[in-house]
Design goal:
The complex is a heterodimer. Chain A contains 10 helices and 6 strands; from the N terminus they run E-H-E-H-E-H-E-H-E-H-E-H-H-H-H-H. Chain A is 51% helix and 14% strand. By secondary structure, chain A is α/β, with parallel strands linked by helices. Chain B is of the alpha+beta class. Chain B has 3 domains: 255 residues, Rhopdopsin 7-helix transmembrane proteins, CATH 1.20.1070; 69 residues; 123 residues, Heat Shock Protein 90 (2-Layer Sandwich). Helices cover 71% and strands 7% of the residues of chain B. Chain B has 15 helices and 5 strands. In chain B, helix 14 links the parallel strand 1 and strand 2. The two termini of chain B are 39 Å apart. The chains are: A alpha/beta, B alpha+beta.
């Protein structure tokens, strides 16, 4: 797996590079700003770009914009966005059209190397990765006309872990149930959320998008 | 209603009642033949002057014309009293009989400004009052009504009998003086009319001609007083009263046409308005001073809060972390299991410290707001609120940063209060831009009873909104939920 890492803080960038290399992931390029990132991505066509949200020149949302640009221009390159803080609105924005090959993680997670490398591998394989913080915010919210209202608490839990990008096996391990039981919950979620029948992977992504549905106006 | 307006209405009621009384007196008179005519003439003069006078008084409170006209009206009631069969009332009536003419001359000479100008005018007015009060009263002391051309009149209760020659002499002096004073008045007023500019002449014309005619008739009446023919005397009397009845309307017309009066009115209105503006301005300055002090204080309070959070939170955690790492280093090599545990603890502390710093940063400056605007930021607030929040309306477009900030903090603080105190089922948030203002409304269905002064941060919001020239209000009846509203100008 080949990766490009973009972060304007050299300290953090090199930390991420070292963690990834130790986990056997090849880092083919590094960038300090969005422009350099695009150059490196176009040159190396990596499997994954790991991108910091805030970069020069404006230190606002360069990373998010670069992520969209990369997904549009090079569909084969997945993007994992790292951020100092997570906002549901940004997650929604990033994954609005498709959650395939996209991830959004708190920067803190790099402290746990397995979380980081798992996420890189998952998005690299066309899956998604949402930070547990976003997931817990979504699960913790209460609102009227919630599409998730119909789900049982257990199904909500499973959906949350799905949104984080976990596999059925990982979910089963987390919840201490059998994989078979998780499969049943997943089928229940798909039918309750009225997701069109298509490939299992695609349905998982659709479920995540439904999960992220913004609070409606009106 | 102003106190002046109340007083004027009381005077109007008094004039009405006096008129009714006067009519009753005249109609039951024993010494007057054409009673109906007398009622008509006297009431039209009295009510005419009193009515128009009160109206003028109301319109131009600073001008003496109104009060003087009203006084003329009331003075006419003395004339009505001379019709009484009662000695006392008759006597009062006779003594006050000519007062109306004196006030009228006063009125003419100070029209339309309301102030006597020049020494001559002042002398004329003073002598006129002397003639109609002192001389009139003095003459009455020596007058036998029945011998003075008033057949059937009551007896004079204060008569000093046997001095009819004194009465005749005083009468002659009175009449002569009156003729001179009236003549001077006519000359002065006419001269003033001729010399005045177009505006002033405009005001004077109706008064000068009606008044001049009235006094001309009065002069005739005075001249023929010795009584050649009763019929002529009577016609002159009726004509004089009739013209006097028209006079008040001439005065009113003149007053309303007068630019002088108008200018005074405008300047008095302007000065009243000015005073009010000044008072409002002073109140506003005071309010601004207080709110500026509160904003500065709120800034300090916020710094204290940040300092306390840093000190109690991240700083404590980092210190614990340092200690854990030192312990881990000491145990390194001798007790790997304990070292691992200590490092795990250290990582946990570190994670918590990072999370705390993140939340603190979010509280200081909501990044989502500056990067994505109100809709996204309010969405974020709604997501994090423990009470379900319905976003009824949020602006799609970006607004000026200070307005976005104020609206955001109003909603954030209000939702914090909803979560803490309201015990609400649901809260709705509406932020709309229309008619040059941004309207912010947060409504909940909770227990109500919130107050701006109760230290719930609402005062700070009010100041924040006021700093943008906006209005802020909280309505929160106990049991009826709370509605926090702000409207901020936004062109």
């Amino acid at each position: 797996m080949r990766v490009v890492v973009a972060d304007d803080s050299t300290l953090l960038r090199e930390g991420v590079v070292r963690l990834l290399e130790e986990a056997g992931i090849e880092v083919v390029g590094q960038a300090g700003d969005a422009e350099e990132l695009m150059r490196k991505v176009r040159a190396h066509k990596p499997d994954v770009a790991v991108v910091d949200v805030r970069m020069p020149p404006t230190h606002t949302d360069e990373g998010l914009r670069a992520a969209r640009e990369i997904r549009a221009e090079l569909p084969d390159t997945a993007v994992l966005v790292l951020s100092q803080y997570v906002e549901v609105a940004y997650a929604r924005e990033l994954l609005a059209e498709s959650a395939e090959g996209l991830g959004y993680l708190l920067k803190d997670r790099v402290a746990d190397v397995t979380v980081l490398t798992d996420a890189v591998r998952r998005v690299g394989a066309g899956g998604s990765a949402l930070d547990p913080e976003v997931v817990s915010q979504m699960l913790g919210r209460r609102r009227r006309d919630d599409p998730l209202e119909e789900l049982t608490p257990r199904e909500r839990e499973v959906l949350g872990l799905m949104a984080e990008g976990r596999s059925n096996a990982a979910i089963a391990a987390e919840l201490v149930v059998t994989e078979r039981a998780v499969e049943k919950h997943v089928t229940g979620i798909f039918s309750k959320l009225d997701l069109p029948s298509s490939g299992e992977d695609h349905r998982r992504v659709l479920a995540v998008l439904r999960f992220l549905d913004g609070p409606g106006e009106g | 209603m102003t106190s002046l307006r109340r007083a004027l209405l009381a005077l109007a009621a008094l004039a009405f009642l006096a008129g009714v009384g006067a009519a009753a007196l005249i109609l039951t008179s024993s010494h007057e033949s054409s009673r109906g005519l007398a009622v008509l003439l006297i009431l039209s003069a009295a009510w005419g002057f009193a009515g128009t006078g009160l109206y003028a008084w109301d319109r131009r409170p600073d001008n003496n014309i109104g009060p003087l006209m009203t006084a003329v009206g009331f003075a006419w009631f003395f004339v009505a009293m001379t019709f009484s069969g009662s000695e006392v009332i008759y006597a009062i009536g006779v003594v006050g009989n000519t007062l109306a003419y004196a006030v009228l001359i006063h009125l003419l000479l100070c029209f339309p400004g309301g102030k006597l100008e020049g020494r001559l005018s002042k002398w004329v007015v003073a002598l006129t009052y002397f003639d109609t009060t002192v001389l009139q009263a003095a003459r009455f002391l020596f007058t036998v009504p029945n011998n003075d051309g008033c057949t059937g009149c009551p007896e004079n209760p204060v008569l000093i009998a046997g001095h009819e020659n004194v009465s005749n002499a005083l009468n002659a002096i009175q009449v002569a003086l009156a003729i001179v004073l009236i003549a001077i008045t006519v000359v002065v007023v006419f001269g003033r009319w001729r010399r005045s500019d177009a505006n002033r002449r405009n005001a004077l014309t109706p008064v000068v001609f009606t008044g001049g005619f009235a006094f001309l008739i009065l002069l005739v009446q005075l001249a023929i007083q010795p009584g050649v023919s009763e019929a002529v005397e009577r016609v002159a009397y009726i004509a004089a009263v009739a013209v006097f009845a028209c006079l008040p309307f001439a005065f009113l017309l003149g007053l309303l046409r007068s630019r002088v009066g108008r200018a005074e009115e405008i300047s008095s209105a302007l000065s009243a308005e000015n005073e009010q503006l000044n008072a409002e301005l002073r109140a506003k300055v005071e309010e601004l001073r207080a709110s500026r002090a509160r904003i500065v204080e709120a800034g300090y309070a916020e710094r204290r809060r940040v300092e306390r959070n840093l000190h109690d939170g991240a700083q404590q955690r980092l210190m614990a972390l340092t200690m854990n790492l030192r312990l881990a280093r000491d145990k390194l090599g001798e007790d790997p299991a304990a070292t691992g545990e200590l490092l795990d603890e250290a990582m946990e502390e570190l994670g918590a410290a990072t999370a705390e710093l993140r939340e603190l940063a979010r509280g200081i400056h909501p990044v989502l707001l500056s990067e994505r605007g109100l809709r996204a930021a309010l969405g974020g607030l709604a997501e994090r609120s423990p009470v379900p929040v319905e976003l009824v309306a949020t602006p799609a477009e970006r607004l000026p940063a200070p307005i976005e900030m104020a609206a955001y903090f109003v909603v954030a603080e209000a939702l914090t209060n909803v979560a803490r105190y309201a015990e609400a089922e649901v809260a709705t948030v509406r932020v709309e831009r229309r008619n040059g203002t941004v309207e912010v409304e947060i409504r909940d269905d909770g227990v109500g009873g919130a107050e701006i002064d109760a230290g719930t941060g609402l005062r700070g919001l009010e100041d924040r909104v006021a700093a943008l020239e906006g209005r802020f209000s909280v309505s929160s009846r106990a049991g009826a939920g709370t509605t926090v509203e702000a409207s901020i100008p936004c062109e």
